[in-house]
Design a protein that fits this description.
about 325 residues, alpha/beta, Rossmann fold, Zinc Finger, Delta Prime, domain 3, 2 domains, 5-stranded parallel beta sheet, about 50% helix, disordered N terminus, binds zinc ion
Length: about 325
């Protein structure tokens, strides 16, 4: 059954959209939209917010794009819509922002039937902000829908999470994601980048735009040089930070997963970096599985710490020093 949806919703989100629309008459006052980085959560939240404000939604629940509500929304000046984001990229959402919002949210809507608010990313709320929001969630004012968007919802207090209806956006099936990516990416690259992006198409596309294929080669070169003790982890950390700390660490996670696979099964099927198999095989030789696992867990933890106030430079250095130790221990 092919349903013609508006082009603005990514194909892998259509099923979730339909499910959301089924309950539209009983729309909860708070939704928590979660899912991996690069799935289009924010786009989904915007479309949902617009559809809540629109007077003339179509049969699939999409906003009409023509009415006064839609026009104001598109111009980012709808008086009944609010977006709460960190005031500076990478910073926290603070309690003053939530307080200011609460002061307006209890007032009646100006022109739409309901008010809509998106908090993005919701996991950027600091402790005080989340607590302040909680009070509102305990006694929600009528005529408001709040949409929390985040790819690390576990960072939110349980008390906040439990008061929201949780919508988890799925990783699309590989075929669907590749078909979508191949419209803009060369086919060989689409597959590798999708692997790097853990199946998230928008993340894969972003990696392509940022020339990550070339960067990945440099990152692996650094790891090889550190393993041979020809380059210092501190120098390489500088390099990794320039490429992007989070991106580099995410890639490192995938690389370690590949090395664990090599060490346990000797198998090169379904690698995250299939085109690097020979180099990875060489790096895996003689390593202890237990130490590889420990490093893999540590890097996964580091990935979670990268969006916190901890110094990313130090986290990178520490990660690469652990990598060096893996090879020093071999001797
Ligand atoms: Zn409309």
């Amino acid at each position: 059954m092919a349903i013609t949806m508006k082009a603005t919703l990514y194909p892998w989100l259509q099923e979730t959209w339909q499910r959301t629309q089924k309950d539209k008459d009983r729309m909860p006052h708070a939704l928590l939209l979660s899912g991996a980085y690069g799935l289009g959560k924010y786009r989904f939240a915007s479309l949902l917010a617009q559809s809540i404000l629109c007077n003339e939604t179509d049969q699939y629940g999409f906003a009409c794009g023509r009415c006064k509500n839609c026009q104001l929304f598109a111009a980012q000046s709808h008086p009944d819509f609010q977006l709460i984001s960190p005031e500076e990229k990478g910073k926290a959402i603070i309690v003053d922002q939530i307080r200011a919002w609460i002061n307006t949210v209890t007032l009646r809507p100006h022109i739409a039937a309901m008010k809509a608010t998106v908090i993005h990313p919701a996991d950027a709320m600091n402790h005080n902000a989340a607590n302040c929001l909680l009070k509102m969630l305990e006694e929600p004012p009528l005529g408001n829908v709040l949409i929390l968007v985040g790819h690390q919802p576990e960072r939110l207090p349980t008390t906040v999470r439990s008061r929201c209806r949780w919508i988890k956006l799925p990783i699309p099936n590989r075929q669907m994601a590749l078909e979508w990516l191949q419209k803009t990416l060369p086919s060989g690259q689409a597959e590798i980048l999708l692997q790097q992006a853990h199946g998230a198409p928008l993340y894969a596309q972003q990696l392509h735009e940022d020339e990550f294929m070339q960067h990945r080669d440099l990152l692996l070169g650094d790891l090889e040089d550190i393993a041979r003790q020809q380059k210092s982890p501190v120098v390489c950390a500088d390099h990794w930070q320039k490429i992007g700390a989070l991106r580099s660490i995410r890639w490192f996670q995938g690389l370690l997963a590949d090395m664990v696979k090599f060490t346990t099964t000797g198998d090169s099927a379904w690698l995250v970096n299939p085109d690097m198999a020979t180099r990875l095989h060489a790096l895996s030789k003689g390593l202890h599985l237990k130490e590889l696992f420990q490093l893999s867990e540590k890097i996964a933890e580091t990935g979670k710490l990268l969006n916190t106030p901890l110094d990313e430079r130090l986290l990178l250095e520490d990660s690469l020093i652990c990598w060096l130790r893996l090879y020093r221990n071999q001797r």
